[in-house]
TrEMBL record:
Residues 142-207 form the HTH luxR-type domain. One of its GO terms (molecular function) is DNA binding. GO terms for biological process: phosphorelay signal transduction system; regulation of DNA-templated transcription. Pfam families: GerE, Response_reg. Residues 7-123 form the Response regulatory domain. The keyword Methyltransferase does not apply. Gene3D superfamilies: 3.40.50.2300. It comes from Arenibacter algicola. PROSITE patterns: HTH_LUXR_1, HTH_LUXR_2, RESPONSE_REGULATORY. Keywords: DNA-binding, Phosphoprotein. InterPro entries: CheY-like_superfamily, NreC/VraR/RcsB-like_REC, Sig_transdc_resp-reg_C-effctor, Sig_transdc_resp-reg_receiver, Tscrpt_reg_LuxR_C, WalR-like. This is Response regulator protein VraR. The lineage of its organism: Bacteria, Pseudomonadati, Bacteroidota, Flavobacteriia, Flavobacteriales.
């Protein structure tokens, strides 16, 4: 990235968004839009003529080459920065993108301010990710611990919240299903409920005293 003005290409099959991107880049002083393509294949064919600094690519492409395109671009230039953009914030898709060596992942809608911030983050920090995805990642590593329940009961509550069956919980905690059932009945008793759905609904309204990773 030698020039002060970085060259950007966009891969987006939704033609309606092309004008939006053109407008965004007209307002940027430090980034230039050097190409908009409707497929990864089209972008690869023109790649050597542009040699972009940053690639913005839609994840869901008709040819299925959204995330797979990352590898093709890396073969062209191992140092190019790649930001994937999509309406899908599924964490498995996010993980796949970063496993393929993406530098960023943004969820739509993207406006000119959020896009510029993302470009700056990649330029100066080397990576970018949408706030909604960051919150999902954090929540995956945090567990709520309720003061009125034992440590074991809190573990079971955590698995119940994930939709796990009694058997799955038993396997994960190395306990028998009957032992899990015993603890769950105690949880129901403390909450004054008679079912899993009632328990989960009530737990959501309870203040938790500690979050731990």
């Amino acid at each position: 990235m030698k020039s002060n003005i970085l060259k950007i290409i966009v891969i987006e099959n939704d033609q309606c968004l092309h004008e939006a991107y053109k407008y965004y880049f007209e307002t940027y002083k430090d980034y230039s839009l050097d190409g908009i393509y409707v497929s990864v294949k089209e972008a690869l064919l023109d790649y050597n003529n542009v040699m972009p600094d940053i690639i913005l690519s839609e994840v869901s492409m008709p040819d299925g080459c959204g995330i797979e395109g990352i590898g093709h671009f890396r073969k062209k230039d191992s140092n190019v920065k790649i930001i994937m953009i999509t309406a899908d914030s599924d964490f498995e898709v996010v993980k796949k993108a970063f496993n393929k060596m993406a530098n960023g992942y943004l969820t739509k809608p993207v406006n000119k301010h959020s896009l510029h911030d993302a470009l700056d983050s990649v330029k100066y920090e080397g990576a970018t990710i949408s706030n909604d995805i960051t919150k999902k990642i954090i929540s995956m590593f945090q567990k709520k611990s309720y003061a009125s329940f034992s440590e074991r009961e809190n573990e079971i509550i955590h698995y119940l919240g994930q939709g796990a069956t009694y058997k799955t919980i038993a396997d994960n905690l190395f306990l028998t299903p009957s032992t899990i059932n015993f603890h769950i009945q105690n949880i129901y008793l403390k909450l004054d409920v008679n079912s899993k759905s009632e328990a989960l609904a009530k737990l959501k309204d309870l203040p938790h005293f500690e979050c731990y990773v």
